Amino acid sequence: MAADLSQIVKAYDVRGVVPDQWDESLAELFGAAFAQVTGADAIVIGHDMRPSSPGLSQAFARGAAARGVDVTEIGLCSTDQLYYASGALGLPGAMFTASHNPAQYNGIKMCRAGAAPIGQDTGLAEIRALVEGWTESGAPEPAATRGTITRRDTLEDYAAHLRTLVDLTSIRPLKVVVDAGNGMGGHTVPTVFAGLPLTLVPMYFELDGTFPNHEANPLDPANIVDLQQRVREEGADLGIAFDGDADRCFVVDEHGDPVSPSAVTALVASRELARHGGEGTVIHNLITSWSVPEVVRENGGTPVRTRVGHSFIKAEMARTGAIFGGEHSAHYYFKDFWNADTGMLAALHVLAALGGQDGPLSALVAQYDRYAGSGEINSTVDDQAARLAALKTAFESREGVTLDELDGLTVTAADWWFNVRPSNTEPLLRLNAEARDETTMTKIRDEVLAIIRG
């Protein structure tokens, strides 16, 4: 019987429980399929610190090499370090990680040369079909000449490249607490930060894919409590938290208060526009704050609004030639990083901005955090479409209100907006609301929730 991969092949990656849903034998077939679909002569592979990652990545390498493809293994790395290798070496790449998922999970993020993403519409469906076919009819025929498998360390080169993109030479000394969550930030931060005028206070830098301290998902407020407390205890200038594969970064100010990813997006956008001569396109998704397009325009740029999700951001980055893109989930994309996302580069921008002036981070980001936001609120519903239809009916006849359905339903008025969009994987509706003041935001948030929850 062919393997049923419907549970592990997602829209943009492979992800599932090891060994229950997939194992090294399947990883080897994925390697062979990746080699065939990309048509590459050579590929690059990296992996995170999960216990199953080395074995899975080596099996993938064997599968690709059996098809005649030369494999460069870069070993332990962050996801954006793998993107760096794909871009700098001009090779398709595969990263073994399940990001912030629990320890029993693992996965593969795949890209073409130059870190161009592979998703369902750009090769992943073909990869899945090949693997399913081979599990039914037997492994693919090996190539006449087997490819080589070699090791290469790219950490120093990755760090050096990032340091060419942000000028940190003249910043004032800063004390920064970094919570790596036992993820790959513990591997990359010491090298990237080396030589900077920073007093680094490391938290959970030990690489441990069982995540003994907290989940490596800083989007959940429970997982940054330790960082917030440590920043206050240390009297630090800021705190930074990375997720498991260190491609997202979250920031807290000197009080331990979270800095909105929208404010980070606006701050980095202003700096990237300055680097590019005060002009350029900046991509933002439709749940980022009103502050983002405002700051982009104020700094000479052109904001472009997209659906939520990295595939949409990356597609618009490529289509428009954008210099930067940001999402409220703390993914940050850079033209000078092959349009790929790198939380580390965003963190360096925050350090450069803070260290380039004398005030505290809370005062610096206040100019980029202008409105009252609800954060994302999830509601379990029986019928997503019916609840969205009820919302549309409730608001479409209101005076001075506009509706659009680019991604779920967005309703915009003079003083507030909200977006409600369905989850693709769970019976949830996700609400984000924002207003010019807290009272108005609370009122519209509660009104919308009352309709959603019926």
TrEMBL record:
Q: Name one Pfam family in it.
A: PGM_PMM_I
**Organism annotation:** Streptomyces glaucescens
- SUPFAM superfamilies documented for this protein: Phosphoglucomutase, C-terminal domain, Phosphoglucomutase, first 3 domains
Q: Which family does it belong to?
A: Belongs to the phosphohexose mutase family.
Q: Which cofactor does it need?
A: Mg(2+)
Q: What GO molecular functions are on record for this protein?
A: metal ion binding; phosphoglucomutase activity
Give the E.C. number(s): 5.4.2.2
Question: Which gene is annotated as encoding this protein in its UniProt record?
Answer: xanA
Keywords (A to Z) from UniProt: Isomerase, Magnesium, Metal-binding, Phosphoprotein
Q: Per its record, how is this protein called by name?
A: Phosphohexose mutase
Tell me which InterPro entries the record gives: A-D-PHexomutase_a/b/a-I, A-D-PHexomutase_a/b/a-I/II/III, A-D-PHexomutase_a/b/a-II, A-D-PHexomutase_a/b/a-III, A-D-PHexomutase_C, A-D-PHexomutase_C_sf, Alpha-D-phosphohexomutase_SF
Domain named Alpha-D-phosphohexomutase alpha/beta/alpha: residues: 7-133, 156-256, 264-371
The protein's matches in CDD domains, at most eight in alphabetical order, are given as:
PMM_PGM
Would I find Transcription among this entry's keywords?
no
